[in-house]
Design a protein that fits this description.
Blueprint (H helix, E strand, L loop, with lengths): L9 E3 L5 H4 L11 E3 L6 E3 L6 E3 L2 H8 L7 H6 L11
Parallel strand pairs: 1-2
Antiparallel strand pairs: 3-4
Length: 87
């Protein structure tokens, strides 16, 4: 359908990126493909819905059973400050 110019939209749950390899546009107004479950190249934060590229560091954390901190959520959070009472 894509080769014949007949593809309007493709909804997929494939996460392997095969649509990108075939030259289809992912997401946005011009996108031909809507990825229902995301892909293996990005992570989405459950809290703020921020989307970030996978890094090797994050992959190692996930393989160890840990979840990486979201950079967007960390920017919004005020660091805890210790107040020391001097006498």
């Amino acid at each position: 359908m894509h080769d014949r110019g007949k593809l309007v939209r493709c909804y997929t749950h494939n996460i392997d990126g095969i649509e990108t390899l075939e030259g289809l546009t992912i997401g946005g107004k011009e996108g031909q493909v809507c990825q229902l479950l995301g892909d293996i190249h990005t992570l989405r934060c459950d809290c703020c819905n921020g989307v970030h590229e996978y890094t090797m560091e994050w992959m190692e954390m996930l393989l160890d059973g840990d979840a990486p901190d979201c950079p967007e959520c960390e920017k919004k959070c005020t660091p805890y400050r210790k107040y020391i009472a001097y006498s």
